[in-house]
Fold these 2 entries.
Entry 1:
Amino acid sequence: MNKIKKPLWNYQYSAPTAGKRLLLLAPEELPIAAPLIKKTLKLKYDSDFIPLKFFRPLNQDEYSNKSLELARALRQFNSEIKAGTYKDNVEDEIQLTLHIVSLVNMYCNQLFSDDGWKYIRKLISQAVKRSKSKTVYLDSTTFKLLSDYILMHKLDSPNEAISQLLTDSKIIDIDLDDD
């Protein structure tokens, strides 16, 4: 978001006096957060998660209404994604207020407890980390050759070695094209 602060979480009891405050979702986080929110909503009826108190204490009707509205907002978000009309860049506070993420934030704040929202934020940060790194599988001989290359060139990591090899490959291709 450009110069726009992320919305703050409305705490169930009282805001912490020290430490980082919880934040609601920003528009660019919604594509990652939507499936995690849906999955967490299903935990309401999972006996293993009931003691964790991820949800605010609501009566069954209130919970049903709010979870239905949240599910409806997430379906609207999915249809915007499929139609290609979802925009995660917001210019000002007015656009943020009218954005689908504001509706999702409002219902999340009404349904999830402080601990439940911390859990969802943790899942989001893990998903972001996973999306930034990829796993490459190498057979043992290739890994041995790569390890030897790392030792020979005094590199720090396999990432560095692969990067170096790719750079060398590009240089060789350029030299061959010039000839």
Note: The radius of gyration is 23 Å.
Entry 2:
Amino acid sequence: MDIAGHLRTPEDVRAAMEIERALKEKKIEIQLTFWDRLQESLCRKLRLNRSDFLEWFSYNSDKVRNYYEGSRENKEYGIGLLVDEESSLMLGLEVYNNIFFGFSMTSGDERIMPGDDEDTERVVRAVHNIIEDPRDSGVLIAWKYPGTQLNFSVFNEAAINLADEEFMAERIEDLTNDFVHLKEGFEEERRELGGNGH
């Protein structure tokens, strides 16, 4: 569709610029609503409080706004939960372009490369046992996309469809169940391979 060809007058261009600004605000609103509802769902399912999630990693309105207005260098945010205190292992659902699940070690307010001690190797093995075809990347021990890929960068069809309440509710339920499955799967593997599990 050649929309640009229809912008023939200054008024047409002004209207298009206004639509562009409104679209950016709508993307911010949809993404914030998505994270808010997902966190509420995880709190209910896991019987947690918002304060139980890793604050330094958590989404907020400034991070989401910067995602669309800034340089997009600050893409490491989402929802993160410490799932093994002994190893400081975090399970996160985060945004880069597509959202994805990832496991990583933490220290203070940042992610770190995993060590090479025996206990850390057991933790890494436990993570790899629960993620089919695990991918690793830098500080991420393993990561995977959810079943429905949500791309907040290009705002793919699934991201657009989050404007529909029913679609949003279905994605939230699916992602909540996946998050809980990964958390509980890790805890079970951790116990079997030795170590506390949390």
Note: Residues 4-193 form one domain.
